[in-house]
């Protein structure tokens, strides 16, 4: 014990990571050629100095704000960073991605922020749109007003492949009553042992099949 008392335990110099992203909420809407919307990120700078925090990657940033004020960001080929001071932060981004249009379907690859939990709300055109998402889990799907909305939970830090195809809605054809004109001529012949019957029928259909 005397020896241990003479060698006090060295305190750690700082946290294991300079920052942490706690959660992200993505609200996007698909157009004819691109996908755009807002990305809200909550996190905390654990270091005691200002730190460059990577927010998103491979996305075009139109605007960045923190607590209602403009936030300067640095965009590079790899990611978009913001210099933030110690403490908790909440950042809101307006971003966009190009759509990839193929025969019969449209889609895009979404770079998912490396946060603790990431939620996605995506609005697409079409009432009967079939949506696929990988990796991730679609938790809700609704259609109204010519649009389909999904809510999903994404895998943090892993790009999500999202694509959809609109189902054609075929209106059922109501059966039509058959109407026709007919003319029947009947010839009856009687012999000693039998009665013969011959009918000549002329039908003209004016409605129906």
Q: Could you give the topology of this structure?
A:
Blueprint (H helix, E strand, L loop, with lengths): L1 H5 L12 E12 L3 E12 L5 E6 L3 E7 L2 E2 L3 E2 L4 E5 L2 E12 L1 E3 L2 E6 L6 E9 L3 E6 L2 E8 L2 E8 L5 E7 L12 E12 L4 E13 L2
Parallel strand pairs: 1-11
Antiparallel strand pairs: 1-2, 2-8, 3-7, 4-5, 4-8, 6-7, 9-10, 10-15, 11-14, 12-15, 13-14, 16-17
* Total beta strands: 17
Biggest sheet strand line-up: 5-4-8-2-1-11-14-13
Which sheet architecture does the biggest sheet show?
Answer: 8 strands, mixed
Individual helix count: 1
Mean pLDDT reading: 88
| Structural category | mainly beta
Unreliable stretches covering 5 or more consecutive residues: none
Strand content: over 45%
Rg measurement, Å: 35 Å
**What is the global morphology?**
rod-shaped
Helix content: under 10%
Distance from first to last alpha carbon: 104 Å
Query: What is the N-to-C order of secondary-structure elements (H for helix, E for strand)?
Result: HEEEEEEEEEEEEEEEEE
Quaternary structure state of the chains depicted: single chain
Structural write-up:
The protein is an all-beta fold. Helix content is 2%, strand content 62%. The strands form 4 sheets. It has an 8-stranded mixed sheet with strand order 5-4-8-2-1-11-14-13, with no helix packed on it. It starts with a helix and ends with a strand.
